[in-house]
Amino acid sequence: MDVKSLYAEILNEHNLNPSHKGVMQDASLTLRGVNPSCGDNIYLQLKVDEKGVITEGSFNGSGCAISQASVDMMLDDIIGKTTEEALRLSALFTDMIHGKVSDDSALEELDEAASLKNISFMPARVKCAVLGWHTMEEMLKNGKSEGQGQASHCNI
Ligand code: ZN
Residue 100: which CATH number? Predict the structure, then answer.
């Protein structure tokens, strides 16, 4: 299977059967992320235990296929990780999406999220791909527990 059809297949699968779509009643952190340029609007929820491990995660909201699939893949990557590791992966993903990672082996730990690498050639879609990751970063760095914060991603 070539890279393009693998990308399409993974994207499709996460849209049809998202693993993490839903509302969590007892989340430790909830933050809304919006990408006005595309109309993507997500609510990301994480449960973080006292050791700083992300034990559960979910998202809901609406948006394009890339934004929705990307946040679902992100949750696959970060559930079970510490918040520090999640932030490191987020930095790696962001570098990848901006075309700054030339060594593909560095992307292995992103698992399926690495299939979005070629978004770096589609500048209009970059904000869609990073929406979930940036919302997660903002949430972990600010420790917001209410859904009032509004992530803005217009500076890329
Ligand atoms: Zn989008």
Answer: 3.90.1010.10
